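Q: Start with the shorter request: fold the first protein.
A: Done. Sequence, then structure:
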Amino acid sequence: MKKIILASTSIYRKQQLERLNIPFSTASPDVDEDSLKAKGLDHIELSRKLSLLKARNISASNENAIVIGGDQVASFKGEILSKPKTKEKAFEQLSTLSGNEHQLITSLAIIANGQEYLHSCIAIMKMRALSDAQISRYIDIDEPLYSCGSYRLEALGISLFEAINCEDYSSIIGIPLMWTAKTLTELGASVP
């Protein structure tokens, strides 16, 4: 079996891939996300391009490996909800999302044997109506300052939602595991 590399330093993506019970390593892709975001691409296309760029970056120096790269974009009424980086910006984003639906777009690219495989999953996220006190308390507890949309679904952030509709629930954390397992199996990995 070829070496598998996850082109990500996200602890949550690492934990997800560990669920498939396959050996893999991680590597940090050096991708300038901001310059691509500045091009004004469609949000699905942006997510797909970023996941491919991350996988290509690591694959370039690991040609004999299977490389997995992923990206997520939160989108509300045509605007990207980037990582807030401050509590004030997180409060603003969550106030906007409160009581509304938005999209969480997760894309995953797998590069192996000179071929690129690409998949996107769009989740429709319906957030509960939240009071200012609930939003502030959530931010203080979960500190979602480096999470798109200002929430961490793998932690307390799941409690902010009343409905999530998507084809693969695992995609909301960062990796659509059903598609990943199927694709890795087709590439020769033993899953399960």
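Q: Next, the second protein, separately.
A: Sequence, then structure:
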Amino acid sequence: MSTNEIKQVLSTIIDPDMEIDIVNLGLIYNIELSDTICKITMTMPTRSCQYGESIVDKIKKTIENLDGVTQCNINLVWTPAWTKEKMTKLARLSLGM
């Protein structure tokens, strides 16, 4: 398992509010893999994101179900703050920006 493979798996998780995956939205800041433990540093579009808890839960369950990963720790940060500029070109096009 590599961090690139983890990133590919994370790109299947959709933010229900924006209907774009969390990788293309730019919510994933860093992925670290040490033995069988994955640490993901990420943010949410806003502190009051109504889907924040469910997105974090889905990430943990999805990553911990991968072969070779026994634990997924989420480091939810607010600095640097998420902005629309963190989205990929694909995400911006999908949202008509």
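Q: Describe the second briefly.
A: The first strand starts at residue 14 and ends at 15. Strands lie at 14-15, 20-21, 28-34, 37-42, 71-76.
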